[in-house]
Amino acid sequence: MKIKIIDPPRTFETGRSEKILIKDCARIALEPNDQVTFTTESGAEYDVARKSWGFYATPSINGRLLNFGLRAALVKSYVGKYYLFLVESGHEQALANYLEPEKNVVVRWLDNDDDLKAIEASDAAALTASPLHCPCGGDRFTSVHMYFAPPEGEVRFPHTEGKYRRELFRCNLCGHFVSVHDMEKEGLYGGQYVDSTYGDEAGMRRTFERIIGLPAEKSDNTGRVNRIAAQCPSPGTVLDVGSGLCVFLHRMKAAGWRCTALDPDPRAARHAREVAGVEAVCADWMTADKLGRFDLITFNKVLEHVKDPIAMLRRSVDYLAPGGVVYVELPDGEAAADGEGFGREEFFIEHYHVFSLASLSRLAERAGLRPLVIERLREPSSKYTLRAFLKG
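The structure corresponding to this sequence follows.
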């Protein structure tokens, strides 16, 4: 056995309620059949034995471990991660006090034969589904960052006032990110987004005019429209889903396209008609019908805002004209995290999903679309962006 003391200890913060400071104090290297015993002041003991194939992580949980004063419990986190807790007998209330703010639950106590036998017969479907789902379908996530306060520059929505706790998970298979929290977001894009971001319709117009007044070399939108023109040289009909300020369609109209904006906020639809000068539909894309068919359907920084981007993208197939193309822009979490970390706007609270090249490709495939082009870029605004042209 070799012991390496870490002095001073490596420290890190965790916890979904109050911050918990963890101190990483040592490394212990065991040879096969070496054992170490951990103890508490009250005399509880916990053995770990190294074997050639791995570890006996505990003594028998309904035998020797009980005799040592510890009860094993299977605990599930609110995002579907499972943990084995060893609870000192008599300290069950302290466990409950810890679990409640962390939003974890005891699935089973593992210190009695009745519970252990029930596991064998339990219906796995009865367990609460995890909120973590990746476009790649793998759903193998690791927690990579905790937010205890809004990052600098994030829009302050009413639902984020007060205690702020948010966790960022990354898919081990494709590098996709998912943001998980329990701060209310219902109705965000039916009103809160405009209220918090622009203030009112006059604020929308001021922002619109500022953006369309940018010189070409500083305009994300100019590059977007030029890239579409290169891929789709013959202007036709375009539907922009989640049109927002309608800066994009304003320029597409100038390039000869017949434009329709779709947005769930009536103020955005009115802004599209009266300020941008294009057709507009005020509707939820997931329930809208009788929209017609379009040569181009665009999702400009939209799919990251919804919990099920596959379903949202899949609907575009029904509204494509023969030979039509879908254009998608998404925040590039892979490049943003590697380049500057998790404080950037790509990871702000309004984004449920933050994509990678691989997850964008799988998103298209699972939505029934075939990628023509997938590329990444750093926009003039400094945003890390992925964009794709897709065929039905």
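The chain is about 25% helix and 30% strand.
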